[in-house]
Amino acid sequence: MVTEALMSIVAGVATFFAGLMPSFAPPDWMTTLPDKVGAVGSYINSVDVWLPFSHAAIVLGFIALAVLVGVIVRGVRIAASFATLGGGAAG
């Protein structure tokens, strides 16, 4: 009950401040951005004959996975060092 009242007050204040802002149409470059990204993708796709991007994506995925595993292991070691009062990898 109280939470709903607070949420309605906050929503009313947010609506009031949003109403004070001027409205505008997005610039043309924002609306044509997906077309430009598609064009860049088609250019990169034609270079795939000389540079195997599909293989590079797999390799980069494995590298990112290895880095993620390393970060997780390091975080676990730091958490474990707090449990042993600084006798581990916190230094």
3D structure, described in words:
- The two termini are 50 Å apart.
- The mean pLDDT is 81.
- With 91 residues, the protein is mainly α.
- It contains four helices and no strands.
Entry keywords:
single chain, 91 residues, mainly alpha, 4 helices
Outline the fold blueprint.
Elements: H1 2-20, H2 28-31, H3 33-46, H4 53-83
Q: Give me the strand/helix succession.
A: HHHH
Shape: flat
The whole-number mean of residue pLDDT values reads 81
Question: Strand share of the residues?
Answer: under 5%
Short description:
The chain is an all-alpha fold and 91 residues long. Helices cover 75% and strands 0% of the residues.
